[in-house]
Automatic annotation (TrEMBL):
Transferase listed as a keyword: yes
Encoding gene (name): prmC
Cited Pfam families: Methyltransf_31 (PF13847), PrmC_N (PF17827)
Taxonomic lineage from the root: Bacteria, Bacillati, Actinomycetota, Actinomycetes, Actinomycetales
Superkingdom: Bacteria
Protein's UniProt name: Protein-(Glutamine-N5) methyltransferase, release factor-specific
Domain spans labelled Methyltransferase: 112-244
PANTHER family in the cross-refs: HEMK METHYLTRANSFERASE, MTRF1L RELEASE FACTOR GLUTAMINE METHYLTRANSFERASE
Gene3D superfamilies in UniProt: DNA helicase RuvA subunit, C-terminal domain, Vaccinia Virus protein VP39
Any Gene Ontology biological process: methylation
E.C. number: 2.1.1.-
EC main group: transferase
InterPro entries xrefs: DNA_methylase_N6_adenine_CS, HemK-like, Methyltranfer_dom, N5-glutamine_MTase, PrmC_N, RF_methyltr_PrmC, SAM-dependent_MTases_sf
The keyword Protein transport is annotated on this UniProt entry: no
Family annotation (SUPFAM superfamilies): S-adenosyl-L-methionine-dependent methyltransferases
Length: 280
């Protein structure tokens, strides 16, 4: 079958299924099977190629995350392994990383032996992006899920980045990190009870729901734990739902954080808590 005709058919199927970025997703699926960018695709597809693409398009029409179908995802210039049981990192989270890197780069000019901690690390996306761009820092990632922890460690090994990933509950203070970190970041489970896009039904529920009527049960604990881990003058950054800005700010201020504010994501929605631990 002619490649472009088959591609156009795939796009129409994805559009009919309600996939938002139908053409982009179809292109990535074709490039994955053909192992070539669009401009050098062959004129015709063989039977095996057609079958593989057809199967992948069907999976995407069923709203399985594209990352799971491809077995990989991209974050801040890094290619990461993606697999069921591990949260698919979103592009919006790159804003958190950008803020952390801007601050971390400045700190690197005046301090040594700097450490950063990523709570609820998942695939390791945030921790790995920090380590790749702050090579003089020691970055640690904490993750409770055995599946996600193994995924993060595999990503670190593949990328050759010396992030230390440990298994544990991010909502419980670990004494070894108390008053040790210059930077603490987190993209915790925070979603409040509501209807979600179909793709999320494939992802681990433990990585999504924040619990409580407003989804704030886990984020509130993360803020408290971060306070314990930070050195005076340290920075805490946390992603949250766009309805949780006021609540996260209030908790941070009550604990004693300074410079507390809500930052916006790529879509100009309130999505990130920014807070500093005051100097002594």
């Amino acid at each position: 079958m002619h490649t472009l005709f088959f591609f156009q058919t795939a796009v129409k199927r994805l559009e009919a299924a309600g996939v938002a970025a139908a053409e982009n997703d179809a292109r990535l699926l074709f490039e994955h099977i053909l192992q070539a960018p669009r401009y050098i695709w062959p004129g015709e597809l063989d039977g095996d190629q057609q079958q593989l693409i057809e199967e992948m398009v069907t999976r995407r029409c069923n709203r399985e995350p594209l990352a799971y179908i491809l077995g990989k995802m991209w974050f801040y210039g890094l290619e990461l392994k993606a697999e069921p049981g591990v949260f698919c990192v979103r592009p919006e989270t790159e804003t958190l990383v950008e803020t952390a890197l801007n601050w971390g780069s400045s700190e690197s000019k005046t301090a040594e032996n700097l450490e950063a901690l990523d709570l609820c690390s998942g695939s390791g996306a945030i921790a790995l992006a920090l380590q790749a761009n702050l090579p003089n820092w020691q970055v640690t990632g904490l993750e409770q899920s055995s599946t996600a922890l193994g995924n993060a460690q595999e990503n670190a090994e593949k990328l050759g980045l010396p992030v230390r990933f440990e298994q544990g509950d991010a909502t419980v203070v670990n004494p070894q990190w108390r008053s040790k970190m210059s930077l603490v970041v987190s993209n915790p489970p925070y979603i409040p009870p509501r209807t979600l896009p179909a793709e999320t039904t494939y992802e681990p529920a433990a990585a999504l729901w924040g619990f409580g009527e407003d989804g704030m049960e886990i984020p509130a604990k993360i803020i408290e734990v971060a306070w314990e881990y930070l050195l005076p003058g340290g920075l805490f950054l946390m992603e949250h739902d766009d309805i949780q800005g006021e609540a996260t700010v209030a908790i941070a201020r009550k604990l004693g954080f300074s410079e507390v504010q809500t930052r916006v994501d790529l879509n100009n929605r309130d999505r990130f808590l920014y807070a500093r631990k005051p100097q002594n």
